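Figure 6 in text form: structure in, sequence out.
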């Protein structure tokens, strides 16, 4: 059997294959190396700044430095709102691996009760700007700080920071004037400038704190710090100091404010006092008040519910939001309107049988004195507060002229400069009723407005403002609360044009108002007994409900909250006015007997050098501040 010959090898082909494969391998290596080099070039050159920043951020952190909130003083330098040191517990969610587990650990360490735990967790999950600390708790005590310090290694992203916390030495007395600061909520966070409020957890919510938030807040600073792998600060690399907020000096006199609040004696009502030449608000007391310190770090549910459900509405600022029929306090302004519109003269009289009838109608509109007051002219009508005279005057004027004239004194408008939340009240007119109620205006409604009743509503601030304009003989000076911001005096522009009338008309009306307190028939002559200066005033009694034409008001048969409101407005001295006052006491009855004595005591304290009321108030304010516990 013949042996099979093997195929001969082809060396050239093998070399060619080897060479091709080697070239392919070299090409792949070169290609991969080129890609790697291109990537290195891209990272090292084109992306160098971005990655350097990331690397630096792993070691260097920028932290905001919150500014110190400006202080608030009264006109005499008494501190009304200050900042006290406290320790806060904060957390940066982005620096926490397991937020839920960390919160569980914190709750255990701090031994929080169930209700506080719920609020604690809610704050941690509240929306924040990236890498901004969320405020979990304020006012940590020494025991809590110690327990957190021991467990610090277990709490990455959790910090204890020292910060100044708002505190009000006289929280109830100044609650409605100052308002309060509170935690920044989600809605506010979305609207605020992230730079201005970096590191800040509180913002003004109401009152002066809200009105002048921008000035009080200041500008935030920042610092660059070096941290370790767990985010703990090792050292500070540089800083830009924050700019503190401006201090504000109010026109309020804390002594007069306290006296006004004490005069109200826990009754529902308000007292507002203004300096007529400057428009500075000297006192603005609303009773009852509330403890504004409760709102700073977060009021408890029980405390807030108690305030909300209180029938006396302590959160309600009656001075600027309480709307009451101004009643007979508006009669001097109507008299001036009648003179200006030439529908009356000072000498012209009418006979009052105890009621008024519209021509062609049988319905009687009763005077407050049912037996009548005989023949009255303008001055006597103001002195005895004769309703019949002003029913007739209102009918002669008509609602359009009446409404237009009263708006010049600030009724139906918000004319203050910096009073947060002030209401416009309501100055009714034919146009207002048609637009708001789609109804025509009736002549009888004009008569009700003519004695400050019906649809007409005004705030105590508006009543005091109108009396200031009268004291100034028509010169408008805008009411305001801030006297000085930083070192700059506050001088707001006039809210309205001056009311230019003949001097003799102003004198006649003011003389009639003086007779209210010192005349033989003056409705407030008891309150004016023994006056040591010349004072002009006007009482008012505002109905809470309407009586039928043949009904008589009997206070003994009514529920206490259905009684009339007592009102009184005044200014003094007549020749050089230094104070104008409006007093409103809800459901107190007659203004002459209940509100006028309070106005007299307040004005006495302000004007008489030998009166000790302000000195006593000063001593009580000082003692209260000295004994207030520091938390």
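Output sequence:
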């Amino acid at each position: 059997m013949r042996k099979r010959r093997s195929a001969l090898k082809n060396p050239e082909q093998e070399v060619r294959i080897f060479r091709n494969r080697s070239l392919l391998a070299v090409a792949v290596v070169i290609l991969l190396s080129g890609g790697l080099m291109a990537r290195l070039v891209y990272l090292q050159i084109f992306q160098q700044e971005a990655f350097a920043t990331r690397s630096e951020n792993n070691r260097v952190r920028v932290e905001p430095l919150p500014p110190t909130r400006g202080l608030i003083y009264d006109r005499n330098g008494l501190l009304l709102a200050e900042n006290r040191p406290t320790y806060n517990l904060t957390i940066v969610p982005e620096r926490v691996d397991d937020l839920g587990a960390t919160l569980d650990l914190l709750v255990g360490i701090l031994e929080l009760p169930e209700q506080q735990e719920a609020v604690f967790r809610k704050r941690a999950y509240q929306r924040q700007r990236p890498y901004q600390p969320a405020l979990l708790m304020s006012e940590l005590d020494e025991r809590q700080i110690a327990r957190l310090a021991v467990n610090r290694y277990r709490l990455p992203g959790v910090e204890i920071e020292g910060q100044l916390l708002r505190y009000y030495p006289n929280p109830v007395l100044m609650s409605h004037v100052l308002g309060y600061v509170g935690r920044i909520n989600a809605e506010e966070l979305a609207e605020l400038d992230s730079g201005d409020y970096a590191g800040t957890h509180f913002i003004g919510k109401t009152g002066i704190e809200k009105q002048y938030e921008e000035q009080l807040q200041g500008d935030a600073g920042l610092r660059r710090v070096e941290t370790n792998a767990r985010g703990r600060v090792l050292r500070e690399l540089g800083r830009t100091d924050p700019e503190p907020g401006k201090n504000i000096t109010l026109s309020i006199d804390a002594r007069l404010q306290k006296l006004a609040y004490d005069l109200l004696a826990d009754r529902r009502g308000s007292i507002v006092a203004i300096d007529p030449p400057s428009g500075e608000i000297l006192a603005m007391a609303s009773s009852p008040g509330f403890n504004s310190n409760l709102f700073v770090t977060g009021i408890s549910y029980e405390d807030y519910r108690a305030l909300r459900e209180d029938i006396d509405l302590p959160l309600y600022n009656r001075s600027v939001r309480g709307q009451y029929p101004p009643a007979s306090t508006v009669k001097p302004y109507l008299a001036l309107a009648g003179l200006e519109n030439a529908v009356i003269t000072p000498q012209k009289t009418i006979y009052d049988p105890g009621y008024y009838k519209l021509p062609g109608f049988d319905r009687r509109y009763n005077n407050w004195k049912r037996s009548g007051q005989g023949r009255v002219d303008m001055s006597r009508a103001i002195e005895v507060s004769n309703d019949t005279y002003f029913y007739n005057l209102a009918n002669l004027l008509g609602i359009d002229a009446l409404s237009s004239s009263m708006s010049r004194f600030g009724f139906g408008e918000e004319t203050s400069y910096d009073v947060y939340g002030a209401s416009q009240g309501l100055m009714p007119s034919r146009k207002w009723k048609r637009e708001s109620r789609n109804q025509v205006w009736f002549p009888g409604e004009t008569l009700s407005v003519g004695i400050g009743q019906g649809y007409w509503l005004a705030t105590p601030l508006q009543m005091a403002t109108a009396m200031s304009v009268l004291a100034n003989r028509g010169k408008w000076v805008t009411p305001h609360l801030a006297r000085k911001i930083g070192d700059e005096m506050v001088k707001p522009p006039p809210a309205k044009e001056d009311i230019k009338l003949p001097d003799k008309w102003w004198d006649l009306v003011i003389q009639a108002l003086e007779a209210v307190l010192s005349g033989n028939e003056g409705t407030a002559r008891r309150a004016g007994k023994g006056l040591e200066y010349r004072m002009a005033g006007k009482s008012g009694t505002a109905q809470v409900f309407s009586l039928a034409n043949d009904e008589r008001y009997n206070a003994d048969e009514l529920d206490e909250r259905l009684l009339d409101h007592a009102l009184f407005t005044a200014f003094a001295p007549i020749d050089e006015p230094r104070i104008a006052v409006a007093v409103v006491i809800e459901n107190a009855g007659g203004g002459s007997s209940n509100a006028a004595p309070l106005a007299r005591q307040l004005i006495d304290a302000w004007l008489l050098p030998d009166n000790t009321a302000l000195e006593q108030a000063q001593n009580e304010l000082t003692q209260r501040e000295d004994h207030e516990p520091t938390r």
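Caption detail: The CA atoms of residues 91 and 158 lie 4 Å apart.
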